[in-house]
Amino acid sequence: MKEHYELVILGGGPAGLSAGLYAARARLDHVLIEQAAPGGQVLLTDWVDNYPGFPEGLTGFDLVERMTRHAQRFDLNQAMATVREVDLSDAGRKILHLEGGGTVSCDTLVLCTGARANTLNVPGELELRGKGVSYCGTCDAPFYRNMHVAVVGGGNTAIQEAEYLTKFATRVTVIHRRRELRATRIIQEIAFANDKIDFIWDSQVTAIRGDKGVERLELVDSGGQSASLAVEGVFILIGVTPNNAGLPLELLKADTWGFIPTDIESRTAVPGVMAAGDICSKDVRQIVNAAGEGAVAVLAAEKYLQGLK
Length: 309
What we know:
Elements: E1 4-10, H1 14-25, E2 30-34, H2 60-72, E3 78-80, E4 83-87, E5 94-98, E6 103-111, E7 115-117, E8 133-134, H3 137-140, E9 148-152, H4 156-165, E10 171-175, H5 185-192, E11 197-200, E12 203-209, E13 216-221, E14 226-230, E15 233-236, E16 240-242, E17 273-275, H6 287-308
Parallel strand pairs: 1-2, 1-6, 2-3, 6-17, 8-15, 9-10, 9-15, 10-11
Antiparallel strand pairs: 4-5, 5-6, 7-16, 12-13, 13-14
Helix pairs in contact: 1-2, 1-6, 4-5
C-alpha cells in the first residue's frame, strides 16, 4: 500500500466489493482493505436464492467470487491488512493505523466493516450452519416450505421473523429464555393470534442435533428440566453485533448498539466519511441493499473529492 489515497474502502463484503467496483470504474486512486479473504459473512452463507440476476441461486462463495472478479476486471486495488484504529480527528485527512505498525491516510473513507449475528455457541450450531441453522428468516424462509422450524429469541426481530416464517412453514415454535417476550406489545399480539406459532418459555437451547441437517434441538428450562424438540430448521435471532472495533464511535454518532447512522447518500456525520452495508444503523440487512449502499457511498465520495478540487 501507498501512504495516501483519494479513497480507502474498509471491508470486503458485498458493500465493500460493490464500492470497489465503482471506485475502480471511476479510476479513483483507491484501495480496498480487508483483513482476510473478501466476502465477509456471505462466505458463511450456504445458498443465496434472492440476489437479482441469479434465478437459479448460487452459493455465497460463488457470489463473492463473481463480485470480486467483476471489480478486478476494472483493476480493483486490494490489500490485506488489519486496521487497529481509525483517526478522524482531522476532517481533511483520515488516518488508518495498521496492526503491526504503519499508517495509511486518505481524503475519503467508506466504512464497510459489516456486522455479525450473535450465536448461541452450542454444540452443532457451527457444524449445521447453512444446513438448517439460519440467522435470517427473510433470507431463508422459502427453503422451509411445509416444515416445522424453531425461532430462538424474544425481541422485535425474532417475533417479526417468526410471523414471516408462517407464510412458508407449517409450524413455528418460538423458544425464549424468559417468561415474557421483549418485543413491543403490538408485535406480540400479532404473534399470539397466529395459530401457526407456539411458544416454549423459560428455556434455552443447549445443543442442535442432526446428521446432514437439523433434526432436533436439546432444551433445558430454568428448573434444569431437559427436553427435545424435533424440528427441520432453527432461526437464531438474538441480535447482531457491529464490527466497529477501532472506529471513533462518538465522532460518527453511533447509535446505542454501535451501528453508524447515514443519510440517504450513505454519508456519516463526519465529512468525507461514508458507510455502507451491515455496519449502518438500519432495519434491513440483506446482500442486495449492502451492494447498493456500497455503490451510493462511492458516488458520494467522488462528489466530495470533486468539491475538494
